[in-house]
Amino acid sequence: MLTELLDIKGVKVGSRHQHKGIGIILQIESISNESICTQCGTKSYKLHQNHRYIIKDLPWGESPVFLEINRRQFKCQKCKKPFSEKLDFVRKRRKYTKRLAETTLKEVLRSDIRSVAQKGLVTTEEIERMLKDARSDLPKSPPKNLKKLGIDEIALVKGKGNYCAVLIDLEKSVLIQILEGRTQLEIKNFLIKWGREVLDKIEEVSIDLWQGYKSLVLELMPNAQVVADRFHVMVQINQELDSQIKLEKTQLTTLLKNAKTKSDK
């Protein structure tokens, strides 16, 4: 039941501990007894060492959840070199799951880094690393079939004038890029790289009321209609996010009720 509730592919929950003032700690293990050598691509079954550490995951209701994971080290029988197994749900040298990072960044898009960090689940430094990781994961090539572009901002520190710009495909509700700043020049230099083939096909650009963005759109995207409403940029993503959160809460409530019913019997 706990493995199903955790819902991470390829792992099983070994034990669960509730610590007052801390949260829930789940000890998890990989189901597979093999791994692929990162050097030569050979499948290996020879366990070399265990490396256990704790990472943060999405909370269960009001309870923080921590995962005690074991990133096992195998020894390749072909090239004789030790290597660490790849865990799809967490990046190397990160103390939080990928899905926690994704959820956190969606919250940041609707708010700012400090407000999200004040909830106590992740720190401002961790959020900044999440932003850098997300930026490095985004495609470097120009977007395809882009017709509705959203240009919005993330407040790194609210009220301090420290922002970065985000570019969004509004039709697909997909993040295109996170820029390091939000100045007209920074955005222009990035958009120019897309070329006329992409820019001329953009039909609508949703921006805030800052005149600098509007003049930039008129200069680079002459065929686009300017929608001067910054909240329109995020409305589609917010609706999808809210729907997903409601669905996950319903599923979680059902699973917890079923678990309680079984334990009562």
UniProtKB/TrEMBL annotation:
InterPro entries xrefs: Transpos_ISL3, Transposase_DDE, Transposase_Znf
Coiled coil ranges: none
Pfam name, any one: DDE_Tnp_ISL3
Record domain Transposase IS204/IS1001/IS1096/IS1165 zinc-finger: where: 36-79
Domain Transposase IS204/IS1001/IS1096/IS1165 DDE, chain residue ranges per copy: 149-254
NCBIfam families: transpos_ISL3 (NF033550)
PANTHER family: TRANSPOSASE FOR INSERTION SEQUENCE ELEMENT IS1557
Name the record gives this protein: Transposase
Lineage of producing organism: Bacteria, Bacillati, Cyanobacteriota, Cyanophyceae, Coleofasciculales
